Amino acid sequence: MRNFLSALALIAVLASSAGAQVTAEIVFDQEQFLRSESLPMRLRISNFSGQTLKLGHEPEWLRFTVESREGKMLAKTGEIPLPKPFTIDSTKTVSLRTDLMPYFNLSEPGRYSVKAKIKIPQLEKELITDAKTFDIISGTKIWEREVGVPGTTPPVVRKFALQQATFLKQLRLYARVTDANESTVFRVLPLGTLTSFSQPESVVDSSSQLHVLFQNGPRSFLYSVVTPDGDQIIRQTWDYAGDSRPRLRAEDDGRVIVNGGVRRILLSDLPPPRVANTDEKSQSK
Question: What topology is assigned to 23-136 in CATH?
Answer without folding.
Answer: Immunoglobulin-like (2.60.40)
